Amino acid sequence: MKKVKIVETKTSRDLAQFLNLSPADGVEIELRSDLNSKIIEVVKVRGLTHAEVAKLASTSRTRMTALLNRNTSEISTDLMLRVLTALGYRAKLTFSKAS
């Protein structure tokens, strides 16, 4: 049996570098993770069902369930922003120079 090496990264930039991805991919990972976390938080606080959020955002319950379970490989950033908007929030990007 092949031994698995566990690697821990602290930032999306470190994760992207470990996976041989571009720095832009690291930023995208971080952005999508932040959007996903906020959506999950708002849905939980409001006590909404997956079906209720899906209806608000004009998407399917199946896609909403995937999003709320952090299975976002088939979920676009556009849909995440649409869900957040349907929940009454606006995303605001802040730019800073990479170090």
Sheet with the most strands?
none
Order of helices and strands: HHHHH
Give the helix proportion (percent range).
55-70%
Q: How much is the radius of gyration in Å?
A: 16 Å
What characteristic shape results from the CA principal axes?
Answer: globular
Features:
99 residues, 434 Repressor (Amino-terminal Domain), mainly alpha, 5 helices
In short:
By secondary structure, the chain is an all-alpha fold. It has 5 helices and no strands. It starts with 11 loop residues before the first helix and ends in a 13-residue tail after the last helix.
Your description of this structure?
The chain has 99 residues and is mainly α. It has a domain at 35-90: 434 Repressor (Amino-terminal Domain) (Orthogonal Bundle), CATH 1.10.260. It has five helices and no strands. Helix 3 crosses helix 4. The longest helix is centred in the middle third of the chain and has 24 residues, at 23-46. The protein is globular. The N and C termini lie far apart (41 Å).
